[in-house]
Amino acid sequence: MSNYIELIHLSSQITDEICSDFLPLNSFQLAKKLGISVRNSEDYHHDWKGKIAPVRLKNAFLMTTDDGYTIYYNESDSSYNFYIAHEIAHYLLKHNKDSIKQENDANLLALLLIAPPDRLKQMNRLSSKDIANLCKISNQLADQYYMWLIENEAYCEKQLWPKIIKSTILKNKYKYLVVILVVAIFSSVFTINHQRQLKNAEASALQPVASQTVSKEQTSIRKANSIVYITAKGKKYHLPDCRYIRDRKDVKKITLKDAIVQGYEPCEVCRPDIDQ
Each residue of 183-240: pLDDT tens digit? Predict the structure, then answer.
């Protein structure tokens, strides 16, 4: 799979220039920015009337035309915004065949395009359920994106504030520019003074703070790597003391992350998805 950080940078080059307070971002606007024509099912039947269409229109597909690139989409599918973004992702990644690897990369890039991590953070919409509802995608796909966000939380946090400030400046150039500059100067002065105070503090006073910082950054990753249990024919994952797997011989250990990626759902009895 492509490097996740590379996919973030690739998506940011496009989404950073789109000023919007709403999610998901409009895939039609993304396509227009890239010079890709987008046509619906009525256009599809008109364009290919009396001809042999290269692909049957189910969700969406990308094809080259005399004028460049065109995405045909089925507007009756409620997830069409995601499917258009998915085809845009194939275009950006220069995919030339349908493989599981390329489909997974296109799914991730599509979600980064229509639901960038910094915009989700600004709206305080970082749960798997929020992502599924916002983007109108399956719970399984939303869970995969959510687990990726958890695993890359440290990186996303480093990128968050510069992108928020940039977005604010683009939308309110003259209104907030002076305020941002004043805040930046104040922050610099505060940082210098704070660093001087830290140099004079005892090393023992710093240890609890360092411990709390490490703990906060690693909590989400530890949760993703926690052990749950599945059965050979079951579709749920369980806690070790769940009555549904007690005394069974076909019980298998698996990480929470792998269980979600493989499509397993939490048991409604032992509730392994709730912090104990």
Answer: 788 777 778 877 787 777 655 554 554 445 445 555 555 677 788 999 988 899 999 8
Structural domain spans, the chain: 4-156, 179-218, 225-266
Backbone angles phi, psi at 124, to 5 degrees: 55, 45
| β partners of residue 259 | none
Is 122 exposed, middle or buried, given 0-12, 13-18 or 19+ CB atoms closer than 10 A?
A: middle
Gap between the Cα atoms of 178 and 169, Å rounded: 10
Q: What is this structure's pTM?
A: 0.56
Give the number of other Cβ atoms within 10 Å of residue 91's Cβ. Answer: 16
Cα separation, 148 vs 8, in Å, equals 12
In this structure, the strands spanning 37-39 and 68-73 are parallel
